[in-house]
Amino acid sequence: MHPAKSVIFFTASSGAGYGLLFALILGNILDTLPSYPYFLLSAYALSFILIGSGLLSSTFHLGHPERAWRALSQWRSSWLSREGVLALATFVPAGIYASYLIFFSEEYFISVEIIGIIAAACCILTVYCTAMIYASLKTIHAWSNWRVPMIYLLLSLTTGCVILSALMLFWGYQAAYIIVLAIFLLLFSAALKLSYWQFLDGSKSPSSPESATGLGEFGDVRQFEAPHTEANYLIKEMGFVVARKHSVRLRQLVYIGAFFVPAILMTLSLLLGEIGAAVLAGISVLSMAMGILIERWLFFAEATHTVNLYYGAREA
Q1: Could you report how far apart the first and last alpha carbons of the chain are, in Å?
Q2: Domains in the chain, please, with CATH?
Q3: d(CA 216, CA 19)
């Protein structure tokens, strides 16, 4: 599949934003995060910025961005529509909960925690809907498996915890428990991503030229002539192929940049003072951001649509 820059940025940015927002809400409900208003303001503002910029960038992939609102009406059958509805709906409870904590936290209301729980649930559901946009496509073998939603949800929470750790250290707060959680999530994410790539390398789509034509009982089916002489939309969007040697190198960069470097730096931050820990945490955020962008590029580049069988591919 063609890796569209706008969709890559959308999934990476909004995923990090929802992960950060979920971690903030859960931490506030459990009373494990600082209640300092300026810390909360910066943290919630950053989560909303990441979500908003990601959602905005997703419209650039549309042929007519001004008609994006129409996608919201198909929520009964479309995961894309469900994602859009939930993405907008999440701003309401999340905004109310964040505003209360920042400006009106002197008084306690149990209903506010209920609003926070609703906002946290919306974060999970929105990321899940984003993942299901791809996992629901049975025509793409690389996406149609249970690992895809798990990876989206886990990477969202992981990036959120890494960012939250950096924010806490930047404001001078003790963040050992968040850092330990982030390290565990980084290693778990690396293991799950390894499982996904092993699945990708060790299996293929059941679709083939033989199954498509029903002529498999007579032997191998090969294309006699190309369907047309010029490139079209399908070839551009669904015929993208990344060389195996490039794929291996990029996977290595994902492991290094997105998982291992942040895990090592955050481990070292536990041993340093406030300034040193904050610097290492900031570098780990940058490293993970670059690694996740490469991971998302590969997610699309390594996926093969079965329509390529029509254009001469032996397998999809």
Answers
A1: 11
A2: 5-311 (1.20.1630)
A3: 47
pTM over 0.70? The answer is yes
Which SS3 state, helix, strand or coil, does residue 258 take? helix
Looking up tokens 């979500």, which residue turns up? Answer: 51
Residue the block writes with tokens 């939930």: 86
> How would you label 179-208 residue by residue, b for 16+ Cβ within 10 Å and e otherwise?
bebbbebbeebbeebeebbeebeeeebebb
Q: Are 301 and 190 in contact (CB under 8 A)?
A: no
Interacting residues of 29 by C-beta distance below 8 A, sequence separation 6+: 113, 116, 117, 120
pLDDT in tens, the chain (316 residues): 677 888 899 999 999 999 999 999 999 998 889 888 899 999 999 999 999 999 888 877 666 666 666 777 777 888 988 998 999 999 999 999 999 988 886 666 668 889 999 999 999 999 999 999 999 988 888 898 899 999 999 999 999 999 999 999 998 888 888 999 999 999 999 999 999 999 988 887 777 777 776 776 777 777 766 667 666 666 676 666 776 778 889 999 999 999 999 999 999 998 887 788 899 999 999 999 999 999 999 999 888 877 777 766 666 6
